[in-house]
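Session log. Operator J.P. requested a structure for one protein chain; no other inputs attached. Running the standard single-chain path with token output.
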Amino acid sequence: MTALAYLLSRFFNAVAESRMRQAEIEVRKHLSLVPRSALAKAGVKATYRNSDTLPFVK
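Structure written below.
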């Protein structure tokens, strides 16, 4: 792997990680606006206590 390819790879990985963190922040910010009954009706069972079941979790 050339130095340029390595730098581009690291850059894109950093951008992807940053966007995933921002998406998680936005979801947490707006989750309180959705009534719990609507979440239960939609079948969303994941909470922050069992956050391993959420998508995009490493």
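Operator note: The longest helix spans residues 3-31.
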